[in-house]
Amino acid sequence: MSFTEEEIDNLSVRDAVAELIDSSRNERLGLPAGIRVPLLVSSAALVGGLSGMVFGYREAGLRFLASNSHRLPTNRNGWFMYHKRKGYYCFAQSFVLGAKTAGKIGLFTAVMFGTEALLDEVRQLKDFGNTMAATTLTGFFYAWALGMKPVQAKNYIRKGGKYGLLLGVAQDALIFSRGGYVWYINGVLGLEPKKLHERID
């Protein structure tokens, strides 16, 4: 059976894509830790920074109004200058709060997913247990850093563990759906999903 040059190119691209996906099927979110953690950290910092800027702009507007309520303008030119100064002030304050929020959320995300990747390496096993341990440890250190009371800290750590369990199970489900190995699904339940090249063929 002879193939045209175009068909050979299409076959090689298909095989390359299938091999790439198969090689990363056991990775969380389909990405190795060296790519996944920086991507998650930068995304979280970006989202946190933007939300911090929005909140900071609104807060700065209220603060500006409160500090100038005793000397509000009385004519059109005065109101123009008032809103101009208010805009500069709000933008400056929104960038400050946005940078702080981006730093906090980025650091929190880096610690959480970095710990998860470290536990994956130490245990040589990727499962929900590592995710749950990472979120619980991150919650513990966050509560300790903020000096929370024991009741608050316990509640915060418990919530972190619950969210970690949900996130870990969701990641395990994604790994399994890509044909990866998840010990409690493949080993205990005996389920074996098809790998991508088997699905294509």
From TrEMBL:
Q: Which UniProt keywords apply?
A: Membrane, Transmembrane, Transmembrane helix
From the record, give the transmembrane residue ranges.
Answer: 35-57, 88-113, 133-151
Q: Which domain of life is it from?
A: Eukaryota
What protein name applies here?
A: Uncharacterized protein
